[in-house]
Specification:
The chain is mainly α. It has one domain: Arp2/3 complex 21 kDa subunit ARPC3 (Orthogonal Bundle). Helices cover 67% and strands 5% of the residues. It is globular, with a radius of gyration of 22 Å. The two termini are 29 Å apart.
Length: 244
Amino acid sequence: MRPMSSAATSAPSDREIRFASRGSSYYDVLLAVFCVVLVVSNIAATKGTQFFSGDVSIGPVQIIPVFSDGGAVLFPLAYIIGDVISEVYGLRAARRAILVGFGTALMAFATFLVVMRLPSASFYANQEAFESVVWSGVQIVAASMVAYVVGQFLNSYVLVAMKARSAEPGLWRRLAGSTGVGEAADTFIFCAIAATAIGIDTGGQFLNYVVVGFVFKCAVELLVMPITMVVIRQLKQREASYWA
């Protein structure tokens, strides 16, 4: 039997646990987008949204109102980017992104508080509206920050823990499993703290808010999962340190 060549023995194995170094331009871009998504989502979340009035019915079935908030438009992208960072760069890189995102969101809100206290120009007629949004934002930001930290850390931890068991195979299971755990914690904590700030004041509305938020966020992530997987595979190929 011929001995194995050095090329064969050094070929990458799907059973090895690998992560790329975070010192690359790709990681920097992901981190920048991650922070922007978080800041914009916090601002958008100050608006409560409702679909259907409760008077609409299809045959014998009455369509109940669906409650959410403006942050739901963009926030699922934060978890998608978090999945990409956790899978390609590991838990330490994901933790850094979470903390930097936390800092940028606080800085943005602190800026709004300072601006709110600045004297208004004589021609500026929207001070009361601005204050209303900012003060409702206090509760929204508190809810978002607590939910974000808990949910993102759980999301990253579960994904990396699952990867430690399966290595490269089973990517879709890691993405789906980590999303379910992270989004469940994030949605419940955020809704529990932020509900009254956007006008949710009954138990039925709160349950509706939690269920709709969780289902919507998970559905978005599952729908774009094929794209997420392509992005992850492309990053793994382009990051030389991943296979080093």
